[in-house]
Amino acid sequence: MNLETKICQVQSIFSQLDQEIEELKHSSGLDCRSHCTHCCENPDIEATILEFLPLAKHIYDLGWHERYLHQLAAKPEQCILLNPEQKASQDISLVPGCRMYPYRGIICRLFGFSTREDKFGNPELVACSWLKHAPAYANIFLLGIKIPTIAEYRWQGHLVLALTRRPNRLASGDSLGFRDWPRDATCPYLMYMIPM
Fold first, then answer.
1. How large a percentage of the chain has pLDDT more than 90?
2. CA nearest 107: which of 44, 60, 165?
3. Rounded Cα–Cα distance for residues 128 and 108 (Å)
4. Residues 114, 13, 97, 107, CA torsion sign
5. Concatenated DSSP letters for 45-66?
6. Residue 99 gets which letter from DSSP?
7. How many CA atoms lie within 13 A of 48 on its CB side?
């Protein structure tokens, strides 16, 4: 499977998740505070290369990869997509806070609007303290609304990876099969976003 196909599959997962989250927001009234970037400021998130491939391609296609690499080097503890001025980006007029909101990773999409199992096996909303104290949160599980689970969407990402693995690369220790992909016109942005 080529890189473009993989990116399309990731974007398809994003589209499905975004639809589920919009339905959850509409049905429950649960939503983030306007202009809040508290979760974006957390340096301890877990993300995968796969979920940021659409972003990497977009940044490369715009010719902004060098700029973002410099930003990352200057502030490695901060998300390079966060607009600290709290106003819409001049690059693309999007949601305040994130310069590349449509290209954000799955972790950014799931936080606040997905569940995980607590230690007793019960669903627990993965959210900040503000959302957990919002009036809509109190009844979220009683409404019978489908709430995305982190495990469900992480599993879909693993399936995309499984379909793209090259068996001869697994033996060499490169489980993703990226180590010797060509750095030519078909996938030049990989050299900037994936450690080789």
1. 27
2. 44
3. 12
4. positive
5. ----TGGGHHHHHHHHHHT-HH
6. T
7. 13
Q: What pLDDT was estimated at residue 41?
A: 83
Structure tokens at 150: 């982190």
Q: Which residues are within 8 A (CB) of 49 and not within 5 positions of it... i.e. 6 or more apart?
A: 176, 178, 193, 194
CA distance 113 to 126: 7
**Distance (Å, whole) CA 159 – CA 141:** 28
| Secondary element (H or E) of residue 190 | helix 190-193
> How many Cβ atoms from other residues are within 10 Å of residue 79's Cβ?
23
Residue that the structure tokens 């473009």 belong to: 4
Question: What is the pTM assigned to this prediction?
Answer: 0.73
* Amino acid sitting at position 101: Y
- Give the CA-trace dihedral at 158, 38, 25, 157, to 10 degrees: -10
At residue 93 the predicted structure's pLDDT band, cuts being 50, 70 and 90, is very low
SS3 of residue 124 by DSSP: strand
**Contact predicate 51/105, CB 8 Å:** yes
**pLDDT, tens digit (0-9, with 9 covering 90-100), for 138-161:** 888 888 888 998 888 877 776 676
Residue 125 gets which letter from DSSP? E
CA distance 72 to 79: 8
d(CA 166, CA 85): 43
* 31 and 25 Cβ atoms separated by less than 8 Å: yes
Output the average pLDDT for the chain. Answer: 77
